Amino acid sequence: MSWTDERVEILKKMWGEGQSASVIAKELGGVTRNAVIGKVHRLGLSNRSGGGSKAPAKDKAAPKAAAKPKPAPKKATPKKEPEPAAKPAAEAKPIPARKQIIPAGQPLPPQPSANEISPEALASVREVEKGAKKLNLMELTERTCKWPIGDPATDDFWFCGLPVQQGKPYCEAHVGVAFQPMSSRRDRKR
DNA sequence: CCCTGATTCGC
DNA sequence: GCGAATCAGG
Q: Where is this region: Disordered (predicted)?
């Protein structure tokens, strides 16, 4: 595929609309998002500003750009960092269906009680749990929802296992109940 | 992990 | 001019 006027036209239009390069590439077909981005740059509309009157306040100093033309195309030595690798997923466990065990008598910080979760979130969770993949511990991967379901003390226990939301340890629905925005908490009138 | 755009450089 | 490979951020 080549960049015909028509295709460039579509490119311009979509880019102008703020579409992502990958979407544009998909629409055009026969090109990758890299191609799209490359073309965008060559067309000089890398900045989504149409005016173009703006002089980029970019500093000339581009030390990094010149720093690595072709270091070593090889596998590159991944720095082996003695990273303790504290799994973020671990500390965020929701502890469902279990009385919380509070160590000592400090006033507890505000905790999202399971009963204050928005109905929508709850609903979608139930939805999700119906279609959950019911993974066991071994089957969990970096990108499976690690939300526990059921009682760990019985067979009736598994993990959600749906695709996680980028970054988070849970799928979208469970992220919703795990990380409450802290806004939905209404002070009950007194 | 997924995604995004940015940049370089052999073709 | 083109775009894969790579980089850098989210």
A: 42-116
- CA of A33, C1' of C3: distance in angstroms: 9
Residue with tokens 């010149």: A66
Give backbone dihedrals phi and psi of A24, rounded to 5 degrees, phi first: -60, -45
Strand C interface, A 62-121, C-beta < 7 A: 64, 68, 71, 73, 76
Q: Which nucleotides of C are covered by protein (CB under 7 A)?
A: 1-8, 10
Closest CA to A161 of A134, A130, A121, A127: A134
CA at A141, C1' at B1: how many angstroms apart?
Answer: 10
Provide, rounded to the nearest whole percent, the portion of chain A with pLDDT above 90. 15
pTM exceeds 0.85 for this model = no
**Helix A21-28 and helix A5-16: axis angle, to 10°?**
150
Average pLDDT over residues A13-30: 89
pLDDT value, residue A178: 77
